[in-house]
Amino acid sequence: LIELDGSVELGAAPAIKSWQAQLIPSGGNAAVILRDRADAALLAKVRDVLANVSADPANGIERVIERAEIERVGGFPEADFVVDFAPGFYSGTALHGELLTPATSKGTHGYRPDHPEMHASFFLKGLGIAPQQLGVVDMRALAPTFAALLGVDLPSAELSALALARRHD
């Protein structure tokens, strides 16, 4: 689905001659974008490739999401497919070589929020903030929380600031 231009040299980014579909890696998931969304044959071909690769659990693909569901949940507006990886797997950037290679890092982002083992820790300490348990925090609430603490308006925020317990020191 991606045709390289010329030979591939070790350590060099290969030149792309043409492409029908591209992968946009985002850690625990990756968007697949078709060059021509109106090409029904290409859509079917990519769907088949993704179905074949995801059929083998050893490839670490938990599920493939198609455009209608992507739009419904509000992710990757240009994606035709999203590949969700199982914990321990994530997308790479190589255009050639083996499908699976050992990771060069030990952590990433991009996993769906329904993987509790992938939740990060959030600590906030400061003058006037009381100790408390906040539970699971949506990361989109962080910027409005910091803005509120600084007395700054953030009208474009998707969520409200966290309701922090305050204390008077």
What would you note in describing this structure?
It contains three helices and six strands, in the order E-E-E-E-H-E-H-E-H. The chain has helices at residues 40-54, 67-73, 142-150; strands at 2-4, 16-19, 21-26, 29-34, 61-66, 81-85. The strands form two sheets. The protein has a four-stranded antiparallel beta sheet with strand order 3-4-6-5. A two-stranded antiparallel sheet has the order 1-2. Strand 3 and strand 4 form a beta hairpin. It is elongated. The model has no long low-confidence stretch (mean pLDDT 89).
Describe what is shown at a glance.
This protein has 3 helices and 6 strands. It has helices at residues 40-54, 67-73, 142-150; strands spanning 2-4, 16-19, 21-26, 29-34, 61-66, 81-85.
Strand order of the largest sheet: 3-4-6-5
Q: Biggest sheet, open or closed, and with what strands and sense?
A: 4 strands, antiparallel
Oligomer: single chain
Would you tell me the structural class of the helices and strands? alpha+beta
Order of helices and strands: EEEEHEHEH
Q: Give the C-alpha Rg.
A: 21 Å
Using the alpha-carbon principal axes, give the shape: elongated
Which band does the percent of strand residues land in?
A: 15-25%
Q: How far do the termini sit from each other?
A: 62 Å
How many helices does DSSP assign?
Answer: 3
State the helical fraction: 10-25%
Stretches where pLDDT is under 50 for at least 5 consecutive residues are: none
Quick check: average pLDDT?
89
Q: Let me know the number of strands.
A: 6
